[in-house]
Amino acid sequence: MTDGTVTGTFGEVKDAKWHTVTFEVTVEKGQAGKDIQNTASVTSGNTPPDEPTTNVEIYPRDPKLTSEKSAVLQKKSRR
């Protein structure tokens, strides 16, 4: 990855099968409930370029977290 761009190269493709680039990302905090636009740029010497785009929904959409903690002193320590 360079400057936020993931690059995959397949070399010479001689078939009509799907070829896939798979990657994982860490979403920065503060993105919950937002969508991130993911655009691929596909180029080749013998096909027209394509830029398929999809929106990725970040979950949880509306996070509401609560936490509770309690403690009970079982035995007083001796010094």
UniProtKB/TrEMBL annotation:
<feature type="region of interest" description="Disordered">
    <location>
        <begin position="30"/>
        <end position="79"/>
    </location>
</feature>
<feature type="compositionally biased region" description="Polar residues">
    <location>
        <begin position="36"/>
        <end position="56"/>
    </location>
</feature>
<protein>
    <submittedName>
        <fullName>Uncharacterized protein</fullName>
    </submittedName>
</protein>
